[in-house]
Design brief:
Keywords: DNA-binding, Nucleus, Transcription, Transcription regulation
Organism: Aegilops tauschii subsp. strangulata
GO cellular component, one term: nucleus
Subcellular location: Nucleus
Largest sheet: 2 strands, antiparallel
GO biological process, one term: positive regulation of transcription by RNA polymerase II
Strand content: 5-15%
Mean pLDDT: 88
Radius of gyration: 17 Å
Number of helices: 1
């Protein structure tokens, strides 16, 4: 029969290959933003998330726009 491959813990160390590192960053960033959104919806929480890429690009998530509230 077919063997199911278990997903083990990822060893936490810097990914040396630049392309692999960029791909992993993009996937992890997407997952992190999805979780932030889910937390804000499920728990009615205000969530803010700021991420800087290795290249210095800014990515942000804010669950509600509070800039215009007084």
């Amino acid at each position: 029969g077919k063997r199911k491959r278990k997903r083990g813990r990822v060893e936490l160390r810097r990914i040396e290959d630049r392309t692999s590192r960029q791909v992993r960053f993009s996937k992890r960033r997407s997952g992190l933003f999805k979780k932030a959104f889910e937390l804000s919806v499920l728990c009615d929480a205000e969530v803010a998330l700021v991420v800087f890429s290795p290249a210095g690009r800014l990515y942000e998530f804010v669950s509600s726009d509070t800039r215009y509230t007084v």
